[in-house]
Amino acid sequence: MNKCITKIILGLLIISIVAVPNAAAEVLVPEPTMIDEGMTGPDSMYLDMEMDFARLQINPGYSDMQIKPGNNDEVTVTVTNKDNETITAKPFVSVVPYSDNLFEESWVTITPLSADIAQDAKQEFVIKVNIPQDVDIGHYSTSIAFTEDVMPTPYPTPYPDYLNSMHLSVNVWTPPNIQIQTQFLHGRVESGKSYDYEIKLENVADKDISIDPKIDDNNHMYDFGPFGSMSSAFDDDAITITAPSVVKAGETAIVNVHLEVPGDSKGSYSGAIDLNIDDPSIDEWDGQVQMNFNVWTQPTEPYTKTFTTRTDGPVTIEISSNPFSEYTYAMWMGADTQNQEDPSFDVTLENESGDVEMMLVKTTYTGTVSLGMSDFPPWEADSTGIYQDISASYTEQYSASGAAGDWTLGILPGNADMFSYTITVGPGEDNL
Amino acid sequence: MKGALRLFPLFWCSNMKKIIALFVVLLFTVLMTSISGCVVGTGDGALENSIVWIGTPPAESGVIEKKIIQQVIPNTGTEYENITISASQENDKLCLHVSGMSANTMYPDLYDFTYNYDNNEMTRVSYLLEAIPESVRGEAIGIAMNNEQIREVLFTGKSGNSIPSVKRILPETAKKFYEPKTLFSVTWKDSSLSALVDVDTGLVVDVWSGN
Known about the structure:
A: mainly beta, five-stranded antiparallel sheet
């Protein structure tokens, strides 16, 4: 019985070994771009030079790996001979100088070491990358060249550009030892008020990890846009950070962020807190908490508009909040609360005889809804056909008895940073 | 201890054997309890109680409910407190609009299905999944804002001050752009800017800027 099972397993193994390369060989690969014989212009200078090189098609031309220190990964590369003679491919590592970190040649083993590839034949090479345990996390890249043919240049270059090569990018990573449970502080803040936020850090490692949270030095590198300098709503010193210096193993620590919004601040503030986590599992970007605050100043005095009427017809006032996106609307809720506040307007009307009583005759909610047919990212295409709120606005309509003369309209908005108004004198559609 | 031994006289050999036997029995009991609990929990029992039909339920509503429960999966760490379904007949197909609401999320998960009575097949047509806990939303936005391409558009542009939408992208869709796993789409609609975010690895795997 056991022998029978062993035979079946062996048979299946043999079938799979035979089947895999055949299946891989069936993968369609794009035709390589060859230098056109009729090429003219600046590039033609290269054609004037003696060029005799092997024409190999390498698929894939680029490979990306994610490997933890002490682990390995491999990629199978298919090399097709598009030349009119047999080519000997002898792959080797050509370390590129422009990588973030220097790739070590010794990390790579390639099998077979070399192969003679007949015209139009394919040869598979397995490129195995072993990352030693002591390698720093980060991005490493290199080229794997299959022949010594290099791109001719009219001037000497420090590093050869191999024609028959592929690019290999390796992201050496480890799961973060510290989990940043709050990665984004945002919200609409009011000038003159203070706010407190918490950044929770959980140490999932078995050793203490030191931290030193500070405002990122490069916070304002993006303040210089294409239209010149864009001032921030407030300086970094409006933010005070208090935190322990160590997150103990297996424990959670809180970084407290206190924001005192200056009374005269306007606009928005964008920046980041660099947590300065002293652990190799956290790279520079991962150790940051982004901040984005929009400063809101609630007016205390109403906006006023004077106007003159020449008839005694009724006066109709219509005030609308600006159309706001659903998510701008959410900003009124403060950070992470579900207590939505609707826009509102305190409206007054005066004429030469004093305050005029106004009657709220109509409130209107207006919205724009999309079915996701256009102007959405391609990965949201599966939401097509489902209603999505894009924008909404709120309108109040008031009416007052009119008389010829001078009038003053006062509007104090609440929870609205933009509004529009319409003053109609005489019988409106509703009054007819 | 004595009581337990009386229940299992076959293991009455030595003290060690008794302990091992008791441990095995306890382990078996715990496993069986948890397995049966799981069945009841996914169980559809709990969810069936919270399913609400808007209007008159269609024919075979019980079968349809079971198929819907199999196909609507909330975000990890989230449960649907209630599911509302509305149905409309379109030619020979039944169109179903499903909304899953969670207690700890601001927005619902929305699904559109069609149900074919001939072969009892349920097909998902569309989905819009925003029932995402604030902590996950914040994490996805934070990862997106760590991306240099996103930062450049947001911080040097004149718009982008609004809070972005965050939508869960199912593995079937995600595999077209990255890998078959749950991703999150962080989109600034007013900037025509979106980042496809892998929260597990903390990476932005794709960026769309309206072009």
